[in-house]
């Protein structure tokens, strides 16, 4: 803040000069005491300067309404929305979110520091606070091929920026436990810059959690049970409760939240499609779910405002109090968190669910788009799975709305066999919901293709493919027949990345994600139309889905979340931390 503005806020607080905006007779959500009271709020030069009897250039009567701080998403990946930062913020503001803590490790896995720079630069000069954590694990593990590798020396320069809040989710826990030089250097640099370190530790043992906390890792958004969440809170960690498009953990974790420990919990989305943000809301929806399950509204709001601000050392954000940034929401209804208006830095940005034209910055990405899709020539036998003289299949089963999978062992029967030359091959069986899944390395054209068998995707024909495949973002594809799988992969190469649905070697619907194979350069309205077309096309190749197929598919390649996952190097048993054969 400039000195002149600083002086003005003090003068306005003493009533020596008028406030810019005064909201009278409004019920203030007090996140410090988890209470509420009715009073008047004074705002000057983008800051709250007082609570009490103030006069302003503009005066609003808040009778019957509520005011709370703008919401913060404590952990997200902008790339998962499928749009660029300069489009993402528009949907976020509509949901009352005025700040996010983003981890750009999706694009970093493809483009390295060039990708980080793009995310930072394309979020400059927007009426929104987009903070970043530096990707800690690029690549995520040694069990896959990514497009880039980031070492501590690559990240060090970024810590100078106030928008860099720390080191993002540390998912390579063996590197922490075994004190690998590269990981230790990243952790030590972050600590030396007095920044925060985020964790990623689904199902970690008590001893492993001890080690994580000793390494100064402060958060986890991968808890899968209330018991695990409480154990991490007891060890001094923050638990970020996730409600994304694919992974939804709020119902499982909320029993861990009590009035006496609520300050250690935050709300986040992690990965959420842009259409889902507008159709089903975001952090605001999580607040409503918390309230409906018995949490005090003030406590739920604290988890989405003050708590993440304290966690990430944003000391003047997250509350309606003097000296705090004037990012706030006016609510018509507290229990249903019905948003009337959203303000950013004391300026109105959303009214009655609509963005003001003045805040809609044109999406003008100056990113030099380059092709990031480099595939081998696929042949009719590229996806063959040899089961000659084998009796058991290791099958990956989807758990709806979870990132975890089940590891099934299924007997090989005649209806899933076919002869090929002198071999017996696995044959997809729609009646048993047994499909082929493949991950094709797409960054350096190594020719690597990992193969597996998938249950639970519920395709009845065709194939679905995408270049979003966490975390290295190779090309992942699942299908009921090899021809459609090959056709879909080739189509994605022509599109320079994206999502495609194929049936009988014909494209039913697609969205081009030409920026690193992860994001479209279209505006968010156009992107939503493309996603809606994909959803309609899904009805032709599947039915009775109770999860988001695209995001679910994209996480089947993440080899740090149990039980089975698949990478371009093969089928991976996460619990045993080793590759296994598809058939035995």
UniProtKB/TrEMBL annotation:
EC number of this enzyme: 3.5.4.2
Q: Name one Pfam family in it.
A: Adenine_deam_C
Location of the Amidohydrolase-related domain: 67-349
Task: List, alphabetically, the InterPro entries matched.
Answer: Adenine_deam, Adenine_deam_C, Amidohydro-rel, Metal-dep_hydrolase_composite, Metal_Hydrolase
Record's keyword annotation contains Manganese? yes
Give the reaction(s) catalysed.
adenine + H2O + H(+) = hypoxanthine + NH4(+)
**Which cofactors go with this protein?**
Mn(2+)
Q: Which domain of life is it from?
A: Bacteria
| KW Manganese (keyword) present | yes
Which segments constitute the Adenine deaminase C-terminal domain? 421-578
Q: Name one GO biological process term.
A: adenine catabolic process
- Keywords of this entry: Hydrolase, Manganese
CDD domains noted in UniProt: AdeC
**In the record, what terms sit under GO molecular function?**
adenine deaminase activity
Q: Which family does it belong to?
A: Belongs to the metallo-dependent hydrolases superfamily. Adenine deaminase family.
HAMAP family reported in the protein's UniProt record: Adenine_deamin
Q: What is this protein called?
A: Adenine deaminase
This protein's gene is called ade
């Amino acid at each position: 803040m400039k000195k002149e503005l600083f002086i003005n806020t003090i003068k306005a607080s003493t009533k020596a000069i008028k406030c810019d905006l005064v909201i009278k007779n409004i019920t203030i959500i007090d996140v410090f005491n988890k209470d509420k009271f009715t009073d008047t709020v004074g705002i000057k030069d983008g800051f709250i300067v007082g609570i009490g009897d103030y006069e302003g250039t503009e005066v609003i009567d808040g009778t019957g309404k509520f005011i709370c701080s703008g919401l913060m998403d404590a952990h997200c990946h902008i790339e998962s929305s499928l749009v660029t930062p300069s489009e993402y913020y528009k949907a976020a503001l509509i949901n009352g979110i005025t700040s996010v803590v983003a981890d750009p490790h999706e694009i970093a896995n493809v483009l390295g520091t060039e990708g980080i720079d793009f995310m930072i630069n394309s979020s400059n000069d927007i009426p929104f606070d987009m903070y970043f954590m530096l990707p800690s694990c690029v690549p995520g593990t040694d069990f896959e091929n990514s497009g880039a590798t980031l070492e501590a020396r690559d990240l060090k320069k970024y810590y100078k920026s106030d928008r860099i809040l720390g080191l993002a989710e540390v998912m390579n826990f063996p590197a922490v436990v075994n004190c690998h030089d590269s990981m230790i250097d990243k952790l030590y640099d972050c600590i030396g810059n007095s920044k925060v370190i985020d964790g990623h530790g689904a199902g970690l043992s008590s001893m492993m959690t001890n080690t994580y906390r000793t390494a100064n890792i402060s958060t986890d958004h991968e808890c899968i049970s209330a018991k695990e969440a409480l154990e991490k809170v007891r060890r001094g960690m923050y638990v970020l409760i996730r409600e994304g498009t694919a992974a939804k953990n709020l119902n499982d974790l909320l029993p861990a939240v009590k009035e006496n420990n609520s300050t250690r919990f935050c709300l986040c989305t992690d990965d959420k499609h842009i259409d889902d943000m507008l159709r089903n809301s975001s952090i605001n929806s999580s607040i409503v779910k918390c309230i409906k399950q018995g949490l005090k509204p003030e406590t739920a709001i604290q988890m989405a405002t003050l708590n993440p601000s304290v966690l990430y050392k944003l000391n003047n954000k997250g509350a309606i109090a003097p000296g705090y940034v004037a990012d706030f929401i006016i609510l018509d209804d507290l229990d249903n968190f019905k948003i009337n208006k959203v303000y950013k830095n004391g300026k109105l940005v959303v009214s009655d669910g609509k963005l003001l034209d003045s805040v809609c910055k044109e999406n003008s990405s100056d990113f030099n788009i380059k092709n990031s899709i480099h595939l081998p020539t696929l042949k009719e036998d590229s996806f063959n799975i040899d089961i000659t003289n084998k009796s058991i299949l290791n099958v990956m089963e989807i758990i709806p709305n979870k990132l975890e999978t089940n590891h099934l062992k299924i007997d090989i029967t005649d209806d899933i066999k076919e002869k090929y030359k002198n071999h017996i091959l696995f044959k997809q069986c729609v009646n048993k919901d047994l499909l082929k899944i493949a991950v094709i390395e797409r960054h350096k054209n190594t020719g690597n293709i990992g193969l597996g068998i998938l249950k639970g995707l519920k395709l009845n024909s065709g194939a679905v493919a995408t270049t979003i495949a966490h975390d290295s973002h190779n090309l992942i594809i699942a299908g009921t027949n090899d021809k459609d799988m090959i056709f879909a992969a080739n189509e994605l190469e022509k599109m320079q990345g994206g999502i495609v649905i194929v049936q009988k070697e014909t494209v039913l619907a697609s969205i081009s994600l030409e920026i690193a194979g992860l994001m479209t350069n279209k505006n968010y309205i156009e992107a939503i139309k493309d996603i809606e077309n994909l959803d309609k096309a899904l009805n032709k190749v599947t039915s009775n889905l109770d999860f988001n197929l695209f995001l679910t598919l994209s996480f089947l390649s993440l080899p740090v979340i149990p039980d089975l996952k698949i990478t371009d190097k093969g089928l991976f048993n996460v619990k045993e931390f080793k590759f296994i054969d598809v058939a035995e």
